[in-house]
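Design request, tokens follow.
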């Protein structure tokens, strides 16, 4: 009979599991304003279908809005919900391809993306919507249930 000590041990080289999109956003301080706004807009959760693509505005993106406008937005759940849905795509994990592309958000808005290979680190990405433009500070951050792109402005 075979000797158990002769068994070859297989060492796993798998990386640790990725965080969920919610875990990633909740554990990074730079998204605390976005998380707070999401909790006001969706106290029971978004109920959107995974996978998700999230265009996550940083705290500095929220600081670009006047205090009066931000106070109004946070006090108007319907308007806030519309704004938050413009930052999410449900049912798709969208990585940003080189060149031009368009993504339709859960709020019905169209986000036009332009990714250049210039600038190193995978290039840079500009986004445009009917309400303005933003830069992606970081993109294609993979999560267990989607992908996160960090933006420097709110999509209003």
């Amino acid at each position: 009979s075979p000797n158990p000590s002769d068994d070859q041990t297989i060492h796993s080289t798998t990386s640790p599991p990725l965080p969920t999109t919610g875990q990633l956003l909740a554990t990074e301080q730079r998204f605390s304003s976005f998380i707070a706004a999401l909790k006001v807009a969706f106290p029971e959760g978004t109920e959107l279908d995974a996978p998700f693509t999230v265009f996550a505005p940083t705290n500095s993106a929220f600081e670009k809005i006047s205090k009066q406008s931000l106070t109004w937005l946070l006090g108007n759940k319907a308007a806030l919900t519309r704004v938050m849905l413009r930052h999410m795509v449900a049912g798709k994990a969208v990585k940003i391809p080189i060149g031009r592309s368009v993504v339709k958000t859960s709020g019905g808005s169209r986000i036009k993306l332009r990714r250049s290979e210039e600038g190193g680190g995978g290039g840079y990405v500009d986004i445009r919507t009917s309400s303005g433009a933003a830069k992606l500070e970081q993109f294609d951050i993979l999560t267990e249930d989607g992908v996160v792109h960090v933006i420097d402005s709110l999509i209003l």
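Comment from the thread starter after seeing the answer: thanks! The chain has a mean pLDDT of 89.
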